[in-house]
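Title: Comparing notes on inverse folding

I've been comparing how different people in this forum approach sequence design from structure. To keep things fair, I'm posting one structure and asking everyone to reply with a full sequence. Here's the target:
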């Protein structure tokens, strides 16, 4: 969903019409010279509001903005796990390490190196590679893996991402971005699978195979995860509770078929993966556990990450 932006430069009814709408409460001014229908804004989710703020900025700014981080991700279709920021994120025209919140209702980041950007839907944004790495550096590791999985699955090369990390070195969040890139592989078909993989690997569990196909009674099934070492199938259930009866029956038939192979079976949902521990508990009940040394190493990594970041 996209909100229509009404500006004082548009042909709708001009400045006076917009001002009357704002005074009457039917329109809402989201930045100087740009309004939206108030009821539409109130009904919109944070992502839609963020896009509206980006469109309003592009329509009213004297200089074409270059969108970065979550704003650029929105243009590229890169998933953003977690809360969506209220303000658009931009790249400054000057190089430097600082970020600042500008009086114009934006968050401006100064790149250390001359950035590359491209036009997307008529707006300028950082490249998909740079956008995914910036998210990986600034958000929790699961969100970073989801962003990187997305670009890797669409043909971007790990070597190119590593070269960009080398070019940016050193930068805030570099260690977090490198850990996320070490986990991401482009096999995940959903952000939930990326989030799950991050929790699994960080816990010290041997990396599972993904999207493996098996045939049961003549029917081909593709698995989210296969923990070959433990003989366990892992399924990340991202459907939630809003499913039809037919969906539930098909899901039950699928699970029965997979269990009939004799392999262990574990299923978890978004809440389990976000909290990590419930997902690991379900895996452990199915027989998937990290080796003792790996569990100690995982705890040490988490402790070190909290100290470093």
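Reply #1:
Here's my take.
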């Amino acid at each position: 969903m996209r909100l229509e932006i009404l500006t004082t430069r548009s042909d709708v009814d001009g400045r006076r019409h917009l001002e009357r709408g704002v005074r009457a409460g039917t329109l809402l001014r989201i930045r100087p010279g740009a309004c939206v229908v108030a009821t539409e804004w109130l009904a919109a989710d944070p992502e839609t509001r963020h896009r509206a703020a980006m469109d309003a900025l592009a329509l009213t700014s004297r200089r074409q903005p270059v969108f970065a981080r979550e704003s650029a991700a929105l243009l590229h279709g890169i998933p953003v796990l977690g809360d969506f920021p209220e303000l658009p994120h931009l790249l400054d025209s000057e190089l430097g390490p600082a970020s600042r919140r500008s009086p114009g209702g934006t968050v401006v980041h100064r790149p250390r190196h001359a950035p590359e950007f491209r036009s997307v839907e008529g707006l300028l944004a950082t490249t998909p590679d740079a956008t995914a790495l910036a998210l990986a550096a600034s958000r929790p590791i699961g969100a970073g893996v989801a962003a990187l999985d997305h670009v890797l699955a669409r043909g971007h090369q790990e070597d190119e991402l590593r070269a960009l990390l080398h070019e940016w070195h050193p930068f805030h969040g570099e260690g977090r971005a490198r850990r996320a890139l070490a986990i991401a592989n482009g096999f995940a078909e959903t952000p939930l699978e990326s989030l799950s993989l991050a929790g699994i690997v960080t816990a010290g569990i041997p990396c599972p195979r993904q999207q493996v196909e098996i045939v049961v009674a003549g029917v081909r099934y593709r698995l989210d995860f296969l923990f070959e070492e433990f003989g366990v199938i892992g399924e990340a259930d991202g459907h939630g509770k809003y499913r039809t009866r037919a969906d539930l029956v098909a899901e039950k038939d699928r699970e029965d078929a997979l269990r009939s192979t004799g392999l262990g079976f574990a299923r978890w949902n978004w809440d389990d993966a976000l909290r990590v521990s419930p997902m690991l508990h379900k895996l452990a009940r199915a027989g998937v556990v990290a080796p003792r040394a790996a569990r100690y190493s995982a705890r040490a990594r988490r402790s070190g990450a909290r100290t470093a970041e």
